[in-house]
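Same chain as my last thread, 483 residues:
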Amino acid sequence: MKFPKKELNIPENLKYFKNEIVNLLSNSDDIKYKEISVGNNLYSLIIYIDGITDINKIELEITLPLQKMQNDELKELKATTSPESFISNHVLPDMQISTFITAKEAVQGLLNGKSVLLLNEIDTFFLLGSQKFENRSIEQPESEVSIRGPRDAFIEEIVSNTSLIRKHLPNQNLVIENGQIGSVAKKKFSLVYLKGVVDKNTLEEISFRINCITTDNIQDTGEIEQLIEDNVLSPFPQMISTERPDKTVAFLQEGKVALLLQGSPFALIMPVSLNDHFKSPEDYYNRWHVGSLIRNLRYSSAFVALFLPSIYIAMVSFHQGMIPTTLALSIAGAREGVAFPSFLEAIIMEITFEILREAGVRLPRPVGQTIGIVGGLVIGDAVVRAQIVSPIMIIVVALTALASFTLPSVSISVSFRMLRFLLMIAAATLGLYGIILGFIMISTHLVGLRSFGHYYTTPVAPILKKELGDVIFRLPLTIVKKK
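reply #2:
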């Protein structure tokens, strides 16, 4: 049952505007009103939404200063041609103040935690910055573990995120452009880039695509990624999502653009190439020998994560003569009595591992780790004893899973997981020829794929000699800086 709200003694010239605001907010019960009599004949009404507005700020920084206004100030306020300047300089000097004309503008401010101030005999309507900021503290990144370097991560408050970038990159050319996205529930976003380093055409293209978004509400940068990417059918991500400020700063220095969204702890980096998904800030924090070794390890792991199960299927099913005799006999002995062919073995174990991985992610962290370890051991031992799969297949699937975890970009790891199943089908159908055809198709797709007009395979295709020193090998910083 909804109880009727108490009618306020509002002057007629403000009642219509107040009712229009209430109707736009569906007469919700968390809309609060506060009447204030200022002097003898000035009436004021404060409207705010309970829960997202700082009540103490309304009482101490708005209500009390209004009540303390003298008659001389009231006369000057009524006579001035700029009420906003007078209120800001003389009445509420500590308050962020803006004006609005329509009720829709007022509602948008209320939904963002601001309060509306209506004054009798004053034609200007005010929005006051009374938002309540309740944010979690800055912690270590969870999805991108930092081995060496800064340990801070983005949070859901966009102002805190831009300040983190400013702290890591105190550069006078750092530009932060703010805007709103969403046709109904408007959310603040920020485009961050380095002036003089970013490509102007790319920046204009990014801004144009964002301005074309007409979705009612955007909850995370992942939704923006899907709405502005070049090729929605491609399994490869054309942007990078990161929660690390130092990684974001590293990409900004390369001329890329970062997008931050209010309510999302992830920054969206664009444009990117395939090579960018294999980079990590730790590559540059360590000496170049270590960085090059780790980079090579990642590329090798990517090959294993993508091709190992399909190569095993092709060898066992079609090309047994290519396997060394001793190893072939060992595989044959391990597969003796197994009920399924190698392709079904691989499919069963890959799907089982994906289920375990997803279950471990969704469950609470202590329970998820237990499920991942115990579940993998118990199920792996059980399927081998039941002769559903061979022990060699358990090794292949385990190596494939470990290799996929070495990639610093989660999104590219997921892409390899999807393509792995397609290559397994190709290997079961045509053997090594199917794998080669699949590799050619993937390479052809990558060469034609672009990210905001930039080739996805740069700096390899097309070749950019100045950037080749930071692909598979990471050259010493002294050499890189001289180029």
